[in-house]
Amino acid sequence: MTTPDPLAAVGALAEPTRRALYDAVAQADAPIGREQAAEQIGVPAHSAKFHLDRLVDEGLLEVEYRRPEGRSGPGAGRPTKLYRRAGADVTVSLPPRHYDVAAQVLADAVEQATTAGMPLPDAVREAAVRAGRALAAEPPAPRARRPLRRLAELLRRRGYEPRVDDRDEELMLANCPFDRLARHHTELVCGLNLALVEGAVEGLGGGVEPRLDPAPGYCCVRATAT
Q: Which residues does UniProt assign to the signal peptide (predicted)?
């Protein structure tokens, strides 16, 4: 099963009938069938089914099958297909932003600092390194052979927009996925970025040396092949 594309999912709602059906399902107190959804917005049931299934394909709705109450056994008929709003978040940002990653790192750090009595900056660093290791462990594994290219594949998943020079010696990051936070909390977020990249390098087995090297238009972290 492929992972839904957030941009395509949001784009699917640009069609007025589809958006109306999504709203009808989202506002319902319980999962509803295509006939009920179609009746609410005044379209034929076959048209509603087409649009509802498209919303399922895009990850915006989920499906469950249920027999009518009081009916069971061989003669109960086929279960009814019901639609409900999907529980997963769909967020689109251009250029890519991943504030959820920063929030998880900071939440983990506060919890560790509170329970273990660790200084908060140290806890942030440890939490970010763990997040980097976890990123390196995510499937699929990078296909590139050279360490710098492998790191670039990973960081692209988090919106860093990596750029590797022609000699495969240096990597620059053309986007900071935590840009707004970095503008107001530069030292904190740049340290988080560096620790996350260090964790990813560790998870990949080394071969790259990240460092802080801010430049206009780029993330504060660069990396060099070793």
A: none
Confidence of residue 5 (pLDDT cuts 50, 70, 90): confident
Band (pLDDT 50/70/90 cuts) for residue 103 is very high
> HEC states along 118-132?
CCHHHHHHHHHHHHH
Start-to-end CA span in the chain (Å)? 38
Cα gap 163→149, rounded to integer Å? 9
- Here the tokens at position 209 are 């040396």
CATH 1.10.10.10 fits 6-85, yes or no: yes
pTM value is 0.75
Q: Could you tell me the fold of the domain covering 99-225?
A: Muramoyl-pentapeptide Carboxypeptidase; domain 2 (3.30.1380)
